[in-house]
Amino acid sequence: MPLVRIDLMHGRTVEQRQRIGEAVHRALVETIGVPERDRFQLVTEHAASELVYDRQYLGIKRTDDIVIIQITISAGRTAAQKRALFRRIADNLAALDIRREDVWINLVEVARENWSFGLGLASYAPEVVSAQKVPA
């Protein structure tokens, strides 16, 4: 059920963007149990003037190779699961020669009833049919 937004500086190849998306998805599957086929991603490239970030916030030195990842997911994971997810994403991207310092992640938790995967249905919040009183 995650929606993953990956924002990058313009200039990576299609293959690089696909590998980054795969690396993030693999981390979700392996650390927090996201189903393999539950993959919804938006990978967006930006001009230098459109991707604004602090190059040294919290003493971490970032470059224009920064990868900003925002994951919207249903609430309920523990802090340990979140730390494992962040670590695995950084590990997977490091294997693609992306510096750990350039991996920026934001996790947004929402209630399960806030998802619709199609058909105009609240996919995880089925409607409850109330019994109506029939006039006597």
In total, how many beta strands?
4
Radius of gyration: 19 Å
| Low-pLDDT regions | none
Instruction: Report the average pLDDT across residues.
Output: 92
Instruction: Report the sheet-strand fraction.
Output: 15-25%
How many angstroms separate the termini? 46 Å
**Strands across the major sheet, in which order?**
2-1-3-4
Identify the overall geometry: globular
How would you describe the oligomerization state of the chains in this entry? Answer: single chain
The biggest beta sheet, please? 4 strands, mixed
Give the SSE order as H and E letters.
EHEEHE
Q: In percent, how helical is the residue content? A: 25-40%
SS summary, helix count: 2
Structural class designation:
alpha/beta
What does this 3D model show about the protein?
The chain has helices at residues 14-32, 79-94, and strands spanning 3-9, 41-46, 67-74, 103-110. It is of the alpha/beta class and 136 residues long. It has a 4-stranded mixed sheet, covered by helices on one side. Helix 1 (14-32) links the parallel strand 1 (3-9) and strand 2. It is globular.
Give the key terms.
136 residues; alpha/beta; 4 strands; 21% strand; globular
Q: Outline of this structure?
A:
This protein is of the alpha/beta class and 136 residues long. The protein is built from 2 helices and 4 strands, in the order E-H-E-E-H-E.
Secondary structure blueprint with pairings:
Layout: E1 3-9, H1 14-32, E2 41-46, E3 67-74, H2 79-94, E4 103-110
Parallel strand pairs: 1-2, 3-4
Antiparallel strand pairs: 1-3
